[in-house]
Amino acid sequence: MWINKFKKHKVLKEKLLSLIDRTPESNIDKINKTDYFSKRNLEEGYLKLFYPHLINHLKNLLPTFKSLKCEVHGVWFQQYIKNNIHDWHTHGHSNYAGIYYLELPNKSLITEFLDETKPNITEGDILIFYASKYHRSPLNKTNKRKTVISFNCSFSEWNGEY
């Protein structure tokens, strides 16, 4: 599990939230709002603003993963309000899954892992973990909204370092 600060968080947070607020309503299961099942265009909305920064962030992590290349397989947002939850799941078709904590009003809303790993996350962090690792967004018992931007990626082409 890897945790890094998203350097542009303070600059982009309100802009990203404003653009996400303009995204048409789409809820699934017990998630208030998401664009997971929507057609997403990298040249529109929050993705136009966020995606280049995500790519730069991942490029900076290439040495950490001893890789020369990182490919992003998908990006989507999810917002959780009181009584929302996202049950246990994994992410297929990638090596890693990532979560950018755009709004994290309470530590009780940090992603939970089935193996009971407890990452020390704060708002503005990006968490990257093995995509095959079971995780969930816990039940939101607060009156505050949690917003994340999730993504799948694969690091490849070993850089020759040990």
List the keywords.
three-stranded antiparallel beta sheet, 9 strands, Jelly Rolls, six-stranded antiparallel beta sheet, 162 residues, alpha+beta, 18% helix
Mass-distribution shape: globular
E-strand count: 9
Q: What class would the helix/strand composition place it in?
A: alpha+beta
Major sheet description: 6 strands, antiparallel
User: What's the architecture in CATH terms?
Assistant: Sandwich
Quickly count the domains: 1
Kindly report the name of the CATH homologous superfamily: q2cbj1_9rhob like domain
Determine the oligomeric state from the structure: single chain
User: How many helices?
Assistant: 2
Q: How large, in whole angstroms, is the Cα Rg? A: 15 Å
Trace the largest sheet across and list its strands: 1-7-5-9-3-2
Which CATH class is shown? Mainly Beta
Terminal Cα separation, in Å?
19 Å
CATH topology: Jelly Rolls
Give the mean pLDDT: 93
H/E series: EHEHEEEEEEE
